[in-house]
UniProtKB/TrEMBL annotation:
<comment type="similarity">
    <text>Belongs to the peptidase M50B family.</text>
</comment>
<keyword id="KW-1003">Cell membrane</keyword>
<keyword id="KW-0482">Metalloprotease</keyword>
<protein>
    <recommendedName>
        <fullName>Zinc metalloprotease</fullName>
    </recommendedName>
</protein>
<keyword id="KW-0677">Repeat</keyword>
<keyword id="KW-0812">Transmembrane</keyword>
<keyword id="KW-1133">Transmembrane helix</keyword>
<keyword id="KW-0479">Metal-binding</keyword>
<dbReference type="GO" id="GO:0006508">
    <property type="term" value="P:proteolysis"/>
</dbReference>
<feature type="transmembrane region" description="Helical">
    <location>
        <begin position="33"/>
        <end position="54"/>
    </location>
</feature>
<keyword id="KW-0862">Zinc</keyword>
<dbReference type="InterPro" id="IPR000644">
    <property type="entry name" value="CBS_dom"/>
</dbReference>
<dbReference type="GO" id="GO:0008233">
    <property type="term" value="F:peptidase activity"/>
</dbReference>
<dbReference type="Pfam" id="PF02163">
    <property type="entry name" value="Peptidase_M50"/>
</dbReference>
<feature type="transmembrane region" description="Helical">
    <location>
        <begin position="125"/>
        <end position="147"/>
    </location>
</feature>
<feature type="transmembrane region" description="Helical">
    <location>
        <begin position="66"/>
        <end position="93"/>
    </location>
</feature>
<dbReference type="InterPro" id="IPR008915">
    <property type="entry name" value="Peptidase_M50"/>
</dbReference>
Length: 385
């Protein structure tokens, strides 16, 4: 299984280049679906390696036909991955878990969820959705084979679609991260032990075994002289690398996500002070003194949190300017509930582009200000111990 924009739904449909170099194909409930540049590289490799196999399957086909069918297989493989990832995306959204984007790259895809599932059941359902879609599409393609003339180009094209979906579904069920089977394994261990970290470690080990198994299978194909040995070697090497890197990333993310036992969020928050938004910026700076400052307008609406860096720069030239001019807006993602689990707070802080966060109690009243560097220092100190 990883940013929504403000493009209106009534705007003309178009393909745009995104900041990270991917192509915006379309949106699903405001979730952008991106095609990364590496997808073209992976598809080209598939075409080159698959074309000789088409020649063997259709001995009478012309060169143009075999290359066209090889290209069709690469496209069908990409569409199969897309359908697979859409399964994850739709289920996550139905569970109320935001999805930043869906991205297709090299020989795979990734649905980037905005937050970690809170329960093993959620993790398991989201993980299972993709393979279920792939297996259903493979079954449909298999049934369709009986409706088309055998041994022709159309039959091979339908067979390619069925095989592509079956390959995507079965491969992703292998029990190792970052594959769906690894996420299912993590969900199972998490449910049994009550610890997500234990599930992650078990699934990371599974990822290592899967990567090693792929390399062994590729080598066996080379030794035995299998007809698809070069296709197998190319796909297995790239996929083994992807699995190994993904498993390592999952382990690192789990370590960063951890929250020390016994550490309360309130221990890390700075006292909060409310000041009128029109207060002179120099006075607001003096009143801050290590505290978080919420600037409130005359109508009672919060103008934002005082940005001390911006306030210091403003005070150098205009010490009597309204402090509101140096306010950092309070957004929904920068408001933390003091009663939230520590792991979720750490994840929110890590993924949100802000250096300070307003912490509120269950009644919505300001309870303190959490600064990114304070959280980082506290977590690092606890881990060292």
């Amino acid at each position: 299984m990883a940013a929504t924009g403000e493009h209106g739904r009534n705007q003309p449909r178009r393909v745009l280049t995104t900041a990270d170099g991917g192509l915006l194909l379309f949106r699903v409930q405001d979730v952008p679906v991106l095609l990364a540049p590496s997808w073209w590289i992976g598809s080209l490799v598939v075409v080159v390696l698959y074309q000789p196999l088409v020649d063997r399957l259709l001995p009478g086909a012309t060169a143009a036909t075999s290359w066209a069918l090889a290209a069709a297989f690469a496209v069908l493989l990409g569409l199969s991955v897309l359908a697979h990832e859409l399964g994850h995306c739709v289920v996550a959204l139905r569970m109320g878990i935001p999805v930043r984007r869906l991205r297709l790259f090299l020989l795979g895809g990734l649905s980037e969820v905005a937050r970690t599932p809170r329960e093993p059941g959620q993790e398991g359902l989201i993980a299972a959705a993709g393979p279920v879609v792939s297996v259903l599409l493979a079954a449909f393609g298999g049934l369709l084979l009986f409706a088309v003339p055998p041994d022709g180009a159309v039959w091979l094209l339908v067979a390619e679609c069925a095989v592509a979906n079956l390959a995507v579904g079965v491969f992703n069920l292998l029990p190792g991260l970052p594959l769906d089977g690894g996420r299912l394994l993590r969900a199972g261990v998490w449910a049994l032990t009550g610890r997500r970290a234990s599930g992650t470690r078990a699934a990371v080990v599974g990822g290592g075994i899967v990567a090693a198994g792929l390399l062994v299978w590729a080598m066996l194909g080379m030794v035995s002289g299998s007809e698809d040995r070069w296709l197998r070697l190319g796909v297995c090497v790239v996929t083994a690398w992807f699995v190994a890197m993904g498993a390592g990333s999952e382990l690192t993310a789990e370590a960063n996500r951890g929250w020390p036992e016994g550490l309360a969020v309130t221990e890390l928050t700075r006292p909060v002070l409310q000041l009128p938004a029109e207060s002179p910026v120099s006075d607001a700076l003096a009143a801050a003194a290590g505290r978080g400052v919420v600037l409130v307008r005359a109508d009672g609406v919060a103008a934002g949190l005082l940005d001390e860096g911006a306030a210091e720069r403003l005070a150098e030239t205009s010490p009597q300017a309204p402090a509101e001019l140096a306010a950092e807006p309070i957004r929904a993602e920068t408001v933390l509930l003091a009663s939230e689990p520590g792991e979720e707070i750490a994840e929110r802080v890590r993924e949100t582009a802000a250096w300070q966060f307003l912490v509120v109690d269950d009644e919505g009243r300001p309870a303190g200000v959490l600064r990114r560097e304070d959280l980082r220092s506290a977590l690092s100190a606890r881990r060292v111990r």
